[in-house]
Design goal:
By secondary structure, the chain is an alpha/beta fold. The protein has helices at about 10-45, 65-75, 90-95, 100-110, 150-170, 185-200, 265-270, 310, 325, and strands at about 60, 80-85, 115, 135-140, 180, 230-235, 250-255, 275-280, 315-320. The strands form 2 sheets. A 7-stranded mixed beta sheet has the order 3-2-1-4-7-9-8, with helices on both faces. A two-stranded antiparallel ribbon has the order 5-6. The longest helix is centred in the N-terminal third of the chain and has 39 residues, at about 10-45.
């Protein structure tokens, strides 16, 4: 009869540790799969964001052949809420982009407005624009077009361009001045706050209660966790232009060099006026008929068609808002 090998405490502990390690590896793998699934779902939802609507008042900066303006107007079903501009004069534009005349004509048919010789660094000094407010100011693929071979100098010039644009555009954004109305929940909360404040005043407690009020005396917007305390927005639910919103600046850039070296987030921070809100993948397929054009125009042998230059660079749109709107 064969003898049964006696299992020692050390052996049992070793087996237990082996099983424990296997379980931990399985759990770690499962967590990675779960996190990847969540990230994928977040990206999918994020990319479904509709950046523009007929309620927006849109200013397009630095249009090339105006194909984005036309595509956006067709997408919205109207161009009446779009002002599209370019730096070139009308004569220079038609020379650089042979296809733009028909494109502009179609854009105007949809109700769009076109302005030539508009410098993004002098928007607040431009008579036709300086007194207007926009919910969306869009600058797709900005580039100084200086043609400088030195990489560092090229980066600096484009950073200066972005900084000047941010300083000007931030002054043209709309503010959310929508009146709020207080709800029953809000009224009860306000009574409780007053009651507790009175109790604190009558006691010898060293605790100080700070009640922050909104523009409407005696009302609170959010609690200390940022949760809504009972306001109801009275924003219009129609397709009419609504300027009672916090406006946004959209800048679309290609990924990779030299664009990554522009450090657009840092430039926005340097302006002291705006802050990053989010980033969204720029999907060319969302804008049928849009054809990216370089600042120097379309040059046979140098420029490429079918947006391959853009698509291959994984472009994304940086969404900026006034710093004050993030704190409100």
């Amino acid at each position: 009869m064969a003898k049964t090998k006696k299992t020692t405490l050390k052996d049992r502990l070793k087996q237990h540790l082996i099983k424990y390690d296997k379980i931990k590896k399985i759990e770690k793998t499962a967590n990675k799969i779960q996190e990847a699934a969540k990230a994928k779902k977040h990206i999918q939802n994020h990319n479904k964001i509709q950046l523009y609507s007929t309620q927006d008042k849109i200013l397009l900066i630095g249009e090339g052949n105006f194909s984005f303006a036309k595509s956006l107007a067709e997408k919205l079903g109207t161009g009446k809420n779009i002002l599209a501009t370019c730096l070139d004069s009308e004569k220079d534009l038609f020379t650089k982009y042979e296809d733009c005349q028909d494109i502009i004509s179609r854009f105007k048919e949809l109700g769009g407005t076109v302005m030539f010789s508009i410098d993004c660094a002098k928007l607040l000094k431009t008579k036709a624009i300086k007194n207007q407010k926009f919910t969306k100011i869009v600058f797709n693929f900005p580039h100084a077009g200086a043609g400088i071979a030195d990489k560092d100098r090229n980066v600096r010039i484009n950073q200066e361009l972005l900084l000047s644009f941010f300083n000007e555009a931030s002054g043209l954004l709309t503010n959310d001045n929508t009146p709020k109305k207080i709800t029953k929940k809000k009224k009860n909360l306000q009574k409780n706050i007053k009651k507790r404040s009175k109790q604190y005043e009558e006691s010898d407690s060293e605790v100080e209660t700070e009640v922050k009020s909104s523009e409407n005396p005696g009302l609170l917007d959010f609690d200390e966790n940022g949760d809504d305390l009972g306001y109801e927005d009275s924003k219009p639910q129609t397709n009419q232009i609504n300027t009672n919103v916090d406006g946004e600046i959209h800048v679309t850039l290609k990924s990779g060099e030299p664009y990554d070296s522009w450090n657009i987030r840092s430039i926005a921070k340097k302006s002291g006026k705006i802050a990053i809100k989010t980033t969204v993948k720029f999907d060319v397929a969302e804008y049928p008929g849009y054809e990216h054009r370089r600042t120097l125009g379309f040059k046979t042998g140098l420029s490429v068609g079918e947006n391959s230059e853009v698509v291959n660079k994984s472009p994304k749109t940086f969404v900026f808002v006034r710093k004050e709107s993030l704190r409100s």
